[in-house]
Amino acid sequence: MAKPGDQGVTIIKRKKAGGGDGHHGGAWKVAYADFVTAMMAFFLLMWLLNATTEDQRKGLAEYFDPKVPIARISGGGAGVFAGDSVFSEDAQAKSGTGATDRRPSEENAAMGRSGAETQPEQSDKTGYGMAEMENLFMGMSGESDVEDPDLRHVRTQVTDEGLIIELFDVEGQPLFAAGSAEPSPRMRALLEMVGHVASKVVNDVAIEGHTDATPFTGGGYGNWELSSDRAHAARKILVDAGVAPERIARVTGKADREPAVKDDPFSPRNRRIVIKILRSDLKR
């Protein structure tokens, strides 16, 4: 019981104001960013539909289709091989893999010529750009005797010179018999696949043979002769696979003078055959 004169203690309880977090939080920013991105994609789609022809839209659709390794209809693209643009109104898509007329119209002439040209006597074939040929080469592995593990022996790149295809040894899996120009079954399958791709164009082909730095002992036969013999063996298989003999621009043996692995001259990676599908505007 409180005594007279005692004063009670006053307790003030303050409540925190609520409801402001929803306005000052960051969740709405994420939703707004998603909305803006979706609207940008929508307007870009509308612009593409208005700026392209039916054939060009088909080419774009096939380019982004993961089930189609090579777009059948494509206008090529600008770049080192100065392919025709997909936005050129007069780009004529034909059967085969993307390209335009061998003789472009005056409107597209400034776009440059394709890096690869078709057989003039076979007008139903489409010209292949170098990038398209590279994709075609890799895509044909499923239609040939080449298995996926065999592709470890393959390296491709598109350069100013053309499409470069390197077929090289992997540790424990040589492509030629040791010290011999006799190709293994794996090498034959790879060369036949290269030949099938190269037969689709009329570009010149250059073949180079390379070895590692392992020396020969006596007999007057060395890495120069071995690299040359291997290059000629590759040439014969390519010709048998459909490459016209007159398209072979040069066959050279470079021994161990241009190793792929400069720090290790004995690396199996240095033992290789290099096949170059040359640009059509390069001289032999």
TrEMBL record:
Segments of this protein annotated with the region Disordered: 91-126
Positions in coiled-coil regions: none
Transmembrane segments: 30-49
GO CC, one annotated term: plasma membrane
Cited Pfam families: MotB_plug (PF13677), OmpA (PF00691)
Gene3D superfamilies hit by this protein: OmpA-like domain (3.30.1330.60)
Compartment(s): Cell membrane
Principal cellular location given in the protein's record: membrane
SUPFAM superfamilies: OmpA-like
Membrane topology: Single-pass membrane protein
Domain OmpA-like span(s) in chain numbering: 163-281
Keywords assigned by UniProt, alphabetized: Cell membrane, Membrane, Transmembrane, Transmembrane helix
Lineage top rank: taxon: Bacteria
Similarity annotation: Belongs to the MotB family.
Protein name (database record): Chemotaxis protein MotB
Native source species: Oceanicella actignis
Upper taxonomic lineage: Bacteria, Pseudomonadati, Pseudomonadota, Alphaproteobacteria, Rhodobacterales
